[in-house]
């Protein structure tokens, strides 16, 4: 029987590439999104992948959203925690809300999604959780104490849950993308982005599909002996 996957933030950017990459492998995918109805509808029409709206930072909404996917499609075997936001600013300008929203969605979302799906994976003896961290969670980044802390938290979350899942056939891994040519990176002021790209040894931004291919591998049968690991995909910008 085909595996079932949920990709959070799965209708745009890196998430959309992941949703499509998993579908190409015969996996039945549900793409979660937070608010951009028009993009989600366009994505679903174009790809045939159904989209489901809920805020991954909302615990109850995540439980209800995952239950809906189970009712519509079947038990969830694969989770890709990709949903994330930025609220960049130096600490002296960052508000508590900027801090809290990034922690709630980027890190809290991983907890909420795991709470909803990990027990079932454990009971059935097979599961794959792939968390999208960031180079900025590994190395830090000026103007991102919130985002760097949340992404760094994702790397710790991954290693802890990997230990809990291992004997039940549930692997938990992270990918740490560098700067990828998505809307999120396009929002970085051009002069700042130019300086960042100048420090990428490969000499360019990454492409969403370059992240998606690694997620597809980590979600596959072949990756059963890989757990608790972080794969850095950043054009050599940070060798970790
Ligand atoms: N290191 C040291 N100093 C820096 C710096 C850095 N990396 N970046 C900026 N500064 C300095 C500037 O030179 C400037 O100093 P002077 O006033 O002495 O010239 C001072 O800090 C203020 O810089 P800005 O004018 O940029 O300040 P700002 O308040 O307008 O903006 C900022 C600050 C919002 C943080 C802006 O610099 C910014 O957007 N930076 C990019 C942050 C970033 O990389 N975000 C990644 C988003 S994509 C993502 O997160 C995906 C992923 O996972 C990789």
Number of domains: 1
Task: Please tell me how large the radius of gyration is.
Answer: 17 Å
**End-to-end C-alpha gap:** 38 Å
| Ligand catalogue | acetoacetyl-coenzyme A
**Averaged pLDDT:** 97
- State the low-pLDDT regions, or none: none
CATH superfamily descriptor: NAD(P)-binding Rossmann-like Domain
- Count of helix runs: 9
Q: What CATH architecture do you see? A: 3-Layer(aba) Sandwich
Main beta-sheet annotation = 7 strands, parallel
**Overall shape:** globular
Helix percentage range: 40-55%
Q: Which structural class do you get from the secondary structure elements?
A: alpha/beta
Order of helices and strands: EHEHEHEHEHHEHHHE
CATH class: Alpha Beta
What's the arrangement of strands in the largest beta sheet?
Answer: 3-2-1-4-5-6-7
**What portion of residues belong to β-strands?**
5-15%
Task: Please give the structural blueprint.
Elements: E1 4-7, H1 13-24, E2 28-33, H2 37-47, E3 51-53, H3 59-72, E4 78-81, H4 96-124, E5 127-132, H5 135-139, H6 145-165, E6 170-177, H7 183-186, H8 190-198, H9 208-218, E7 230-233
Parallel strand pairs: 1-2, 1-4, 2-3, 4-5, 5-6, 6-7
Helix pairs in contact: 1-9, 3-4, 4-6
The structure holds acetoacetyl-coenzyme A.
Residues 86, 88-90, 134-136, 141-144, 147, 177-179, 184-185, 188-189, 192 line the site of acetoacetyl-coenzyme A.
């Amino acid at each position: 029987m085909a595996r079932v996957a949920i990709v959070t933030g799965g209708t745009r950017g890196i998430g959309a590439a992941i949703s499509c990459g998993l579908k190409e492998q015969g996996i039945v995918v549900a793409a979660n999104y937070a608010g951009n109805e028009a993009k989600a509808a366009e994505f679903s029409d174009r790809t045939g992948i159904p989209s489901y709206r809920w805020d991954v930072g909302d615990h109850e909404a995540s439980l209800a959203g995952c239950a809906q996917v189970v009712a519509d499609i079947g038990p969830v075997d694969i989770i890709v925690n990709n949903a994330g936001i930025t609220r960049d600013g130096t600490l002296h300008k960052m508000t508590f809300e900027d801090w809290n929203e990034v922690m709630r969605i980027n890190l809290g979302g991983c907890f909420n999604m795991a709470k909803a799906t990990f027990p079932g994976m454990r009971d059935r003896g097979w599961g794959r959780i792939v968390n999208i961290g960031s180079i900025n969670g590994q190395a830090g980044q000026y103007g991102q104490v919130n985002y760097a802390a949340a992404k760094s938290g994702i790397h710790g979350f991954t290693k802890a849950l990997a230990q809990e899942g291992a004997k039940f056939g549930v692997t938990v891994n992270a990918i740490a993308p560098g700067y990828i040519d998505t809307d999120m990176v396009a929002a970085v002021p051009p002069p700042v982005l130019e300086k960042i790209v100048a420090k990428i040894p490969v000499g360019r931004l990454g492409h969403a599909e370059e992240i998606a291919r690694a997620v597809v591998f980590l979600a596959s049968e072949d990756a059963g002996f890989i757990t608790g690991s972080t794969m850095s995909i950043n054009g050599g910008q940070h060798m970790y």
